[in-house]
């Protein structure tokens, strides 16, 4: 009996694996098609100066709309696009589109607005990246200083020559860098010495638990102080209420991003937001 059960478990496991692979394959096919058909949309989420409550910048976030009106989360399809070699094509479109949107908004009178774009480590390893970014900026007639690239710690820690070269060249162009999701995963902070970022984004997981456990308060305070010491601007991700916004202001955090101000919205919703937080 035990043996039979065992076999059944294995069988179920195999079936589950087959199903997972089939799902993945399906999603991959859809992804290819969606990229060909330019079926993606960029949404933008405000980053707000905590003292003045002004919107300084917007982060471009990919959305993949489905026929039923729902979205597939980028957390689901970005890793897949990385695996099947589609991320550069998708990422290049994001860069171009985000620069155009920022330039359009600047022309509508929000002349100081900046835009932040997430970059995958796979894109970052592509030698063409610098050219792609130059083109995106030129096409949009957007100054490089208006563009911030968000990189994750895992990329910065893979301290290869190519990564260093890309970082240097892109810095020379005048774009700035943010370290995204800071505090997740890596305890080795050595990379902060050699890498000249301008911004450190404290991961949402710390901010969310602020309301639950006061133990995270000294931790966030320490991160903010360290960032200040290194000359980095701090952004708190995932602020959902006024109390958290006030607490982070008190802790000396520079900017906030989160549902408290706004979720990511389509470009045409931004002017109204920028008016009220302008
Ligand atoms: P991220 O770069 O850390 O982006 C912030 C995520 O937090 C976004 O999720 C945003 O919608 C969500 N968020 C913002 N404020 C709040 C809040 O107050 N509460 C909660 N619960 N969530 C909040 P989203 O849009 O689903 O994106 C997930 C991740 O997918 C991003 O994390 C980023 O790593 C990746 N991603 C999105 N767009 C792109 C892209 O164009 N290229 C690349 N390579 N990755 C992207
Ligand atoms: Mg980001
Ligand atoms: Mg983040
Ligand atoms: Mg995140």
UniProtKB/TrEMBL annotation:
Keyword Cell division carried by entry: no
Chain segments annotated as coiled-coil in the UniProt record: none
> Domain named EAL: which ranges?
24-278
Task: Supply the alphabetized keyword list.
Answer: Membrane, Transmembrane, Transmembrane helix
Name the domain of life this protein comes from: Bacteria
The protein, known as: Diguanylate cyclase (GGDEF) domain-containing protein
Species annotation = Rheinheimera aquimaris
Covered range of the whole protein? 356 to 633 of 633
């Amino acid at each position: 009996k035990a043996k039979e059960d065992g076999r059944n478990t294995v069988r179920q496991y195999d079936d589950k694996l087959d199903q997972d692979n089939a799902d993945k394959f399906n999603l991959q096919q859809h992804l290819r098609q969606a990229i060909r058909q330019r079926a993606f949309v960029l949404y933008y989420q405000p980053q707000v100066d905590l003292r003045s409550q002004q919107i300084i910048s917007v982060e471009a976030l990919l959305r993949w709309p489905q026929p039923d009106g729902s979205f597939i989360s980028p957390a689901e399809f970005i890793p897949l696009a990385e695996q099947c070699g589609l991320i550069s094509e998708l990422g290049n479109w994001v860069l171009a589109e985000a620069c155009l949107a920022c330039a359009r908004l600047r022309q509508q009178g929000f002349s100081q607005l900046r835009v932040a774009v997430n970059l995958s480590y796979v894109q970052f390893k592509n030698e063409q990246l610098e050219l792609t970014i130059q083109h995106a900026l030129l096409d949009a007639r957007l100054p490089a200083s208006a563009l911030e690239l968000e990189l994750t710690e895992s990329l910065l820690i893979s301290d290869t020559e190519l990564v260093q070269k890309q970082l240097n060249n892109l810095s020379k162009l005048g774009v700035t860098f943010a370290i995204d999701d800071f505090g997740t995963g890596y305890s080795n902070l050595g990379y902060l010495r050699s890498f000249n970022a301008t911004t450190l984004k404290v991961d949402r997981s710390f901010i969310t638990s602020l309301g639950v456990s006061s133990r995270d308060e000294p931790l966030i305070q320490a991160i903010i102080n360290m960032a200040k010491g290194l000359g980095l601007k701090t952004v708190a991700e995932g602020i959902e209420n006024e109390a958290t916004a006030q607490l982070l202001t008190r802790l000396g955090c520079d900017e906030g991003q989160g549902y408290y101000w706004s979720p990511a919205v389509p470009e045409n919703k931004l002017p109204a937001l920028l008016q009220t937080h302008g």
